[in-house]
């Protein structure tokens, strides 16, 4: 971590602050893990910190220590607004553009607090006074560990902080199989286990708590998979009707997109999920090797993220979206077959 950033944050935290910590909308394991870990660390050192999430997050993350302290903006808007208005410091974690926080965006745009960004996605915007942005990092949780280390706070890492950080790193690296997993990532994970992170518990709580309806939904998704061998591509569709039929709950489709990449010869996998309430098709894109789904999502689906893992959206119908998607592939055939 950059020494200048460490010094700036250390100076900021050198006096009492009213701190708000915010993850992106639809927070995942990295977002929840990093914000809770930072919450534990700041409060343990005597700061007044609160996590405010734009909306709810999956049940398989609600075992993390003190997750009940997270304020859900959709349920506690008045409290959240007051905290943001009165905040002197706002940490934004696991996103780098205020458009990623839904209804919280106008509140943060009007806030007078000092902003600190901690994020590993590409092309950050410049809303934060202090920016710790590093696209080479496996996860925001690994970056929070680096921050704590830069603040000479390793001895302050409790088992609660350790398990939050471990869980975020585990989920954002696909259980340590993605290319972003470095030797440094494994060193950090080893230190977190030494600090009390129960790795077996983390894997079990996140991956082994399926409901019958979720497994049936997975079966539906796999049945819907379309394989385009000519373009080394596979995609899945899930309509709103199918989601409703299988009693969809937030987080149920987490990881579904990765099944396409388990097929021999497939390097580009996509899932299209209809969301009638928002009037969009939510898109998750994954790839292996040098094919950049970040560039693909930015160019065609108003999205972005990482080179091998990105998201996007479409306001067309599900059928129109997949037709548009397949029409794009011939232009990428050489890249996909290289």
From TrEMBL:
Group of enzyme by EC: hydrolase
DDH domain mapped to chain residues: 18-169
Signal sequence range: none
Phylogenetic classification of the source organism: Bacteria, Pseudomonadati, Bacteroidota, Flavobacteriia, Flavobacteriales
Entry-linked PANTHER family: BIFUNCTIONAL OLIGORIBONUCLEASE AND PAP PHOSPHATASE NRNA (PTHR47618:SF1)
Hydrolase in keyword set: yes
Boundaries of every DHHA1 domain copy: 249-316
KW Hydrolase (keyword) present: yes
Gene Ontology molecular-function annotations: 3'(2'),5'-bisphosphate nucleotidase activity
UniProt xrefs under Pfam families: DHH, DHHA1
Record keywords, A-Z: Hydrolase
Protein name as annotated: Bifunctional oligoribonuclease/PAP phosphatase NrnA
E.C. number(s) listed in UniProt: 3.1.3.7
